[in-house]
Amino acid sequence: MLDVGKWPVFALLPPEELRLIRQACVFGSAANEALYVTVNDEVFAIGTNCSGCLGLGDLQSTIEPRRIDVLCGKKIVSLSYGTGPHVAIATADGEVYAWGHNGYSQLGNGTNNHGLTPALVSTNLLSKRVTEVACGSHHTIALTSDGEVFAWGYNNSGQVGSGSTANQPTPRRVSSCLQNKVVVNIACGQLCSMAVLDNGEIYGWGYNCNGQLGFGNNGNQHTPCRIAALQGVNVIQVACGYAHTLALTDGGFVYAWGANSYGQLGTGNKSNQALPTLINTDKERMVEVAACHTSHTSAAKTQSGQVLMWGQCRGQAVASPHLTHFSSTDDVFACFATPAVSWHLLSVDGDDYLTVAQSLKKEFDSPEISDLKFLVDGKCIHVHKALLKIRCEHFRALLNEIDEDSIEIHQFSYLVYRAFLEYLYTDDINLPPVDAIGLLDLATFYREARLKRLCQETIKRGVTEENAITLLSAAVRYEARDLEEFCFKFCVNHLTAVTQTQAFADMDHNLLKNFISKASHYGAFKN
Questions:
Q1: Are strands 244-249 and 254-258 parallel, antiparallel or unpaired?
Q2: Model confidence over 209-218: pLDDT tens digits?
Q3: Are 230 and 276 a contacting pair, CB within 8 Å?
Q4: Which residue ranges contain the repeat RCC (predicted)?
Q5: What confidence tens digit (pLDDT) does each residue in 419-455 have?
Q6: Predicted confidence (pLDDT) per residue in 472-525, tens digit
């Protein structure tokens, strides 16, 4: 399961859908668009769909996930996006698909027409196996398994690396100084491109007015050029922000250069740096650097799993690496970047690892390793004695007194008792509001205060004019004060309709007397 809980765009997805997500990417000018891939390799999109960037075949926004049929089963291995936005992916078969904004031919199809559905990028790539894609604001670059780089799209500053500033309508191999060299990693800033070679050298080209190419000057570069200042340093990863660059070395050191008005270089000041500068990370060995071309935020992860962040962090300028409580650099961008987009394709390993909570939920009512069963209304519920003792004082006392492998329950229904036992495994109530009254009775009987509160909240969601009096009576009977007050106010606010129900006609005399008295003080009978 991929944890996307920190990304608001996923907030409306039901838990059963979130559990299926294995890859995801959040993008857009306000982090209001997202793509995700499920365990079944189905691809879905959600969000505002600017320029058709969701690949759904239209320009309609969608608050509910819609499937992108053409991408299902493609096995996405790399995904990137621009600010148009346009989106590019590489599949496990080495194919490249692109869609969305195409005002500068960043889709690589030779036109300037926006692409509403994912289309294969074929020119000069059909015989190639692409392993990674990266997008700048309006240009795209792709890395092949042979270590070649292809680029296309917007080229006003030379970011396509063709030697000119003419836009490139279809993929063109970036050669020049990269000829006969093997590239292993690529990244794009807004208007620049970077490439790391298998020998640890790093090359840059494109816009350079903030020094983001690391050459020691501010002149744009129309073809790839090696960063000479890192001679002898073995770079293994590069990441680009809006106008700054981070490089990770094989020794775990981080270098930064470019724009620094938000402290995104982590140098302790806000001065731009046109040459790579070694960042002080308290001698911790780094294993990952992170930046995104849409923001001025930087992040890094240490070998011990700690995550540092610096730069523009929710409006603050953090000029030195700051230790966070996060376990992933992705969390930095979800919580502190502006916009809060993902800096790369979020992925989870395809193994069967389950958290403790997930494991417990999976074993509820499973007879395989249970050591106790409850018989309710002729049906069995399989549980584990140790867990019941840990989670419930009633069971701790009961199971310490008896040593049975089967217990019959007559006081509560099967539906209610199963919901109670499931709550002990999951902390959640899996009952509709109308059936939660029985669980409220049980929670009162077993003195489960938290369960009682959850029952009241569940029941509140089901209060209607027809059942308000019935629920009010139950709240009084089980001393559920919060629910009682809620039901009382509901009855007063819908007094005419409520007093015409059968439940009101059958109301207990003492309860009716108290209701009328309290409603009178509440001003319900004033003209």
A1: antiparallel
A2: 999 999 999 9
A3: yes
A4: 41-92, 94-146, 147-199, 200-251, 252-303
A5: 999 999 999 888 888 889 999 999 999 999 999 999 9
A6: 999 999 999 999 999 999 999 899 999 999 999 999 999 999 999 999 887 777
Calculate mean pLDDT across residues 180-207.
97
Work out whether strand 372-376 and strand 406-409 pair parallel, antiparallel, or are unpaired.
parallel
Residue type at 470?
A: T
- Residue given tokens 């992108």 in the structure block: 68
Nearest to 253 by CA among 299, 216, 284, 291: 284
Which pLDDT does position 449 carry in this prediction? 93
Report the Cα 408 to chain-centroid distance in Å.
Answer: 44
Other Cβ atoms less than 10 A from the Cβ of 121: the count is 26
Of 103, 104, 102, 35, the closest CA to residue 70 belongs to 35
Residue 56 and residue 68 in contact, taking contact as beta carbons nearer than 8 Å: yes
Helices (H), strands (E): how many in the chain?
A: 13, 28
The residues with which 317 forms a beta bridge, in sequence order, are 312
For residues 300 and 507, what is the distance between their CA atoms, to the nearest angstrom?
Answer: 65
Report all structural domains of the chain as residue ranges with CATH numbers, in order of start: 1-175 (2.130.10.30), 183-337 (2.130.10.30), 356-522 (3.30.710.10)
- Is the Cα torsion angle 415, 416, 417, 420 positive or negative in sign? positive
Report which of 304, 306, 303, 309 is spatially closest to residue 279, judged by C-alpha positions: 309
Are the CB atoms for 294 and 341 separated by under 8 Å?
yes
- Residue type, position 377, single letter: D
Question: What confidence score (pLDDT) does residue 527 get?
Answer: 54
Report the sign of the C-alpha dihedral through residues 449, 451, 457, 463, in that order: negative
**321 Cβ neighbours under 8 A, 6+ residues apart:** 266, 279, 280, 281, 300, 308, 309, 310
- pLDDT(249) > 90: yes
- pTM of structure: 0.71
User: Residue 382 pairs with which residues in a beta bridge?
Assistant: 373
- Is 171:152 a contact under the CB 8 Å cutoff? yes
Contact criterion met (CB below 8 Å) for 285 and 303: yes
